[in-house]
């Protein structure tokens, strides 16, 4: 019987983990109650998430363009320019701002649904690679994103456990990419809430322009977060695919 933790060496006769994992402090116990994880290829879902995140980037870049246009128009109005040309630019900026908001919302919702399906799948796969290496139950892989305040660190903790369990058998991968993505995402989330509140409460032209600058910053950071998210998703998907193919005693249908 293979070690249930590393799935690389034979388990000790009187336990379910190998001598190496036992020496490292792995518990000599059966897998967690209700453990019924099985491997499923994350490749197709990972690619779909990457494509949708690319769509998010496109909508964010469009929003950045509109934000800059609106910021400039507001500056012109603050300088006392009320010509017909400025009014047309203002009307166009308002229309494009509304369109950008709709595009961003649609892209974000579509991406979130597919991302959560992918995230849950890689969480289950990670439990096969390492049944004991997870600090949160599977349900938190989805629910953790929707609980206020908790969503600022639970998903990151789950992602780290998945990353560690999915690393190659003989070495662990550093967390730089994960930390970079998560930092950018949290900054984007918090900045977005601040910008939304400022824009909603703004009444004068200077206040609106200042709020628009905050919106511009949020959209720019969101582009960075989406780029890092693509890199994270593709890296983790590739790690799991390679580990499933190379792991001893593991049989799993994987897509090409």
From TrEMBL:
<keyword id="KW-1133">Transmembrane helix</keyword>
<dbReference type="Pfam" id="PF14219">
    <property type="entry name" value="DUF4328"/>
</dbReference>
<feature type="domain" description="DUF4328">
    <location>
        <begin position="88"/>
        <end position="238"/>
    </location>
</feature>
<keyword id="KW-0812">Transmembrane</keyword>
<protein>
    <submittedName>
        <fullName>DUF4328 domain-containing protein</fullName>
    </submittedName>
</protein>
<feature type="transmembrane region" description="Helical">
    <location>
        <begin position="176"/>
        <end position="195"/>
    </location>
</feature>
<feature type="transmembrane region" description="Helical">
    <location>
        <begin position="139"/>
        <end position="155"/>
    </location>
</feature>
<feature type="transmembrane region" description="Helical">
    <location>
        <begin position="215"/>
        <end position="236"/>
    </location>
</feature>
<feature type="transmembrane region" description="Helical">
    <location>
        <begin position="48"/>
        <end position="68"/>
    </location>
</feature>
<keyword id="KW-0472">Membrane</keyword>
<dbReference type="InterPro" id="IPR025565">
    <property type="entry name" value="DUF4328"/>
</dbReference>
<feature type="transmembrane region" description="Helical">
    <location>
        <begin position="96"/>
        <end position="119"/>
    </location>
</feature>
